[in-house]
Amino acid sequence: MGTERNGRPAEKLSVVYTVRVIEGGEQGFLELYEQIRKSVARTPGHIVEKLGEPVDDSRQWVITSEWETPEHFFAWQQSEEHRALVAPLRQWVDSTQSLRFRVVKETAGVAS
After folding, report:
1. Beta-bridge partner residues of 63
2. What pTM was estimated for this model as a whole?
3. Which of 7, 22, 26, 52 could bridge 62 with an S-S bond, Cβ 3.0-4.6 Å?
């Protein structure tokens, strides 16, 4: 569950962010995502980020990230740098949704 904090295990935070990209907006979205990805990679507490491309014609992309603690994520999310990076996102998407949850169980697959 993570390292000890205040006598109890720290809880990792997972974030799932869905983005419905406007028709024809994929290239602009990907260019913007590249900037966001570079910013988040150097953020304290960030563990991993993944971008999922739709396998159908839904235009629904998924960004998942994992953070050492909820506090790390919220500090980044509320920063001026983050706000400046995501502001242009509106021109490439017509809807978004963000889900945040604490990781309470994690199961690793068997290495092959």
Report:
1. 17, 51
2. 0.82
3. 52
